[in-house]
């Protein structure tokens, strides 16, 4: 067998970590229906006559804002996404809404992120900064292979 017969693909294992359902709290993160979500409410029912305590989660998808609900036994293992927040210096915005960003050390640029459609105030703030020549720092949240601009502020 030659090396070229197998295709290298990511296992996805490094995108999440396991956590017991009872350990996930409000403002924490979890995977519901394959989507990374932020928990906005959770409640635990008492142990019943025929089973274990259940945890009821209400969570919002961090990328598209959809609301999800999940009920799980408190002893079950659930997946928690690995969330990264990175700050970049704003360079430019093209006519299609793609943002050019530079890493803090200036070694790499990123041009594959669009202005956040569901956050019009952040998008407008970024557009205004480019038009007026104001230096901005943009925060990008990434999880499970997706990225989104979540904040923008003037750099000092």
From TrEMBL:
Molecular function via GO: ribosome binding; RNA binding; translation elongation factor activity; translation initiation factor activity
InterPro entries cross-referenced by the UniProt entry: IF5A-like (IPR001884), IF5A-like_N (IPR048670), IF5A_C (IPR020189), NA-bd_OB-fold (IPR012340), Rib_uL2_dom2 (IPR014722), Trans_elong_IF5A_hypusine_site (IPR019769), Translation_prot_SH3-like_sf (IPR008991)
Gene3D superfamilies in the record: 2.30.30.30, Nucleic acid-binding proteins
Keyword Acetylation carried by entry: no
Domain Translation initiation factor 5A C-terminal: 82-153
Subcellular location: Cytoplasm
Keyword Lipoprotein found: no
Keyword annotations from UniProtKB, A to Z: Cytoplasm, Elongation factor, Hypusine, Initiation factor, Protein biosynthesis, RNA-binding
GO cellular component annotations of the record: cytoplasm
Post-translational modification: eIF-5A seems to be the only eukaryotic protein to have a hypusine residue which is a post-translational modification of a lysine by the addition of a butylamino group.
GO BP annotation list: positive regulation of translational elongation; positive regulation of translational termination
Function recorded in the entry: Translation factor that promotes translation elongation and termination, particularly upon ribosome stalling at specific amino acid sequence contexts. Binds between the exit (E) and peptidyl (P) site of the ribosome and promotes rescue of stalled ribosome: specifically required for efficient translation of polyproline-containing peptides as well as other motifs that stall the ribosome. Acts as ribosome quality control (RQC) cofactor by joining the RQC complex to facilitate peptidyl transfer during CAT tailing step.
Family: Belongs to the eIF-5A family.
Protein name, as recorded: Eukaryotic translation initiation factor 5A
Organism in which the protein naturally occurs: Acanthamoeba castellanii (strain ATCC 30010 / Neff)
